[in-house]
Amino acid sequence: MGLISLLISLAAEKSLSSPYWQFNFAFGHYMKMVRQQNFHRKVTGTLLPLLLLAIPVSLTYLALSLVEDSVLNLVLSTAILIVCFGCVKTRDTYKCFLQSAFKGELTTCDLHYQQLLTDKSLPNYGFGQTLIWLNYRYYISVMMYFVVFGAAGAVFYRLVCSLDEQQHQLKIKDPESAAITDVYAKVLFWADWLPVRLASFGLMIVGHFSKAFPIWLENITQINKAPQCILIDVAQKAEDIMVDDEDCTAEPCLLVKLAKRNVLLWFAIIAVLTLTGTIY
Q1: Membrane-crossing residues (predicted)?
Q2: What total of structural domains would you count in the chain?
Q3: Which domain holds residue 93?
């Protein structure tokens, strides 16, 4: 069932661009409800962020557990996975970047790039490196959590990502806010710990294995290294990025192709594991 859901979701995600199919739409309504119920006054300390994580994940798990019909369960799981997959805003930014680059509007390209870094609260990596990280965050990691933990796992991962991004935005707008917490960052770090090492292994397989393997081997032993650093370090070695300095589209296009090959690799791995009965 999981394989069928993945296949349908990957095929349908890009065509369902309506806001109702975007995770940010559901997340916005969820946070609006939290504010209306004054959760921040009723619950304090570490319990609040843990509760904000637990409620949607638990409801998703319980709702699907109560559905006995396998076909309906498949439909609901697939719908949830489609919502958790991808990010239309990121994809649109990438398209706008390429369009501006082809027109020679380098200043506009830089504006799109800076906007993406701000929206996703990311360090100052190159545009292509940023895209390969976001491909992991919105596709590969969600796939892994869905396959292992079901739809509730996919909801958990996307929710903790969104809550962490919200914290970064809050730190910029109001550094003294009492709502600032590092709980989400810590949870997300460990949520990414194994998936990012598996994803970087995939980049090594679909890219230049001999060049990327030493970097991957070195990174898996560095327990506290930032997940994005691990993925980007391996990606840079897995793909030859010897391009014209004046061509700002070359690096992003090469790394996006590498990321897409990685998604296909992990889909194939999941398919083999499903067909052999290792996972269901």
Answers
A1: 43-64, 71-88, 138-160, 263-279
A2: 1
A3: 2-275
Q: Can you give the pLDDT at residue 178? A: 73
Asked whether residue 108 is assigned to any structural domain, the reply reads: yes
Give the whole-number percent of the chain exceeding pLDDT 90: 50
| 265's tokens | 């690799």
Q: 224 CB contacts (<8 Å, ≥6 apart)?
A: none
Considering the domain boundaries, does residue 67 fall inside one?
yes
**What is the pLDDT of the chain when averaged over all its residues?**
87
Q: Is residue 280 part of a domain?
A: no
HSE of 1 in the Cβ direction (CA atoms, 13 Å)?
Answer: 17
pLDDT reading at 267 higher than 60: yes
Q: Under a CB-based contact definition with an 8 Å cutoff, are residues 61 and 73 in contact?
A: no
Alpha carbon distance 132, 128 (integer Å): 6
From the number of C-beta atoms within 10 Å of its C-beta (0-12, 13-18, 19+), residue 168 rates as middle
Q: Confirm whether pTM is higher than 0.90.
A: yes
Asked if residue 242 has pLDDT above 70, the reply is no
176-219 pLDDT per residue, tens: 777 788 899 999 999 999 999 999 999 999 999 999 999 999 99
Q: Is 213 helix (H, G, I), strand (E, B) or coil?
A: helix
Q: What SS3 class is residue 34?
A: helix
CA distance 43 to 29: 19
Alpha-carbon distance values, 214 to 85, 124, 198, 210 (Å)? 31, 25, 15, 8
CA atoms within 13 A on the CB side of 6: 25
